[in-house]
Amino acid sequence: MTATLPSKVRSYHVTAGSGIDGLSLSAHEPREPGEGEVAVAVHAASLSFRELLVVRGQYVLPVKPGVIPVSDGAGEVAAVGPGVRRVRPGDRVTAALFPRWLDGPLKPAYLPQLGGSLDGMLTELAILPEDALVPVPDHLSYEEAATLPCAAVTAWNALTGDGRGIRRGQTVLVTGSGGVSLFALQLAKVLGARVIATTSRADKEQRLRDLGADEVINYRDVPDWHTAAREVTAGQGVDRVIDTAGTPEQSLKSVAVDGHIALVGSVSGNWPPIDSRLLFGVAATVRAPAVGSRAQFTSMNSVITAHRLRPVLDRVFPFEEAPAAYRYYESAGPFGKVVITMS
Fold first, then answer.
1. For residue 341, is pLDDT > 50?
2. For residue 295, which of 88, 38, 106 has the smallest C-alpha distance?
3. pTM beyond 0.85
């Protein structure tokens, strides 16, 4: 130990399937960090669609009863346990969602995850493995840094994790304006891509353009948005689709020959089947990125730092109003990340 921890720490707890109403706040004595562990005073946490799946009981990975939820957070190292060498008290850090996945392909041994089978970041003090920690880019606030571990790393993996990455001048299509899509838009632009964004809301069209979208397709006006995507690419199709909407048929109809589709999720909850004839027709690759490793997180942060990228924040809630933050995220269709701050 190299610092004194507070006598009491407040944390939220939830059991999968209990809903937002199942979130409960309690105070407890903090546990001192053990060998290779670090105590992080959490300054901010942020919500992703994953967190709604956890409280709804729909998350695909195990969730322990009474878990401290939320995978994404950022804070300051308060104390370190024996043997810790990578960080010291006062460092600004966040943590990889899969603490054991340091680099290379995802393996079953790496699947324990924050806010699921492991306690997460909706707490005033998190005890984390040293190896999970990632430095916060200097130009970002804690609120901004808290948005990175799930949505941003997923976007980075979707854009670069297939081994081919993006070549300057290629076209990337991002569906919707959720957290992954906005990060994918921003990152694709600094990697030199042309970006097409889709939305169902006219009030978001200009905001997407302001973030760098070269073309915006409103799929309320153009339900067959894949046709519009082909039109703006002179019939060639897009090189890469970041599909957060669960629309594989339209993604396959919009993608170029030998293109790539990152099937990130389905905000509607529906999972339409993939038509193998469409898949073979364009010889495309369809991949489901599982967030990413610590090495991918670090690589992404290097790009964020070099280009001074800033995450888009929609609204910040105080810690005491965390359930309200969940409800807002669930119902308001936010443009940008919903953050919960502990200060």
1. yes
2. 106
3. yes
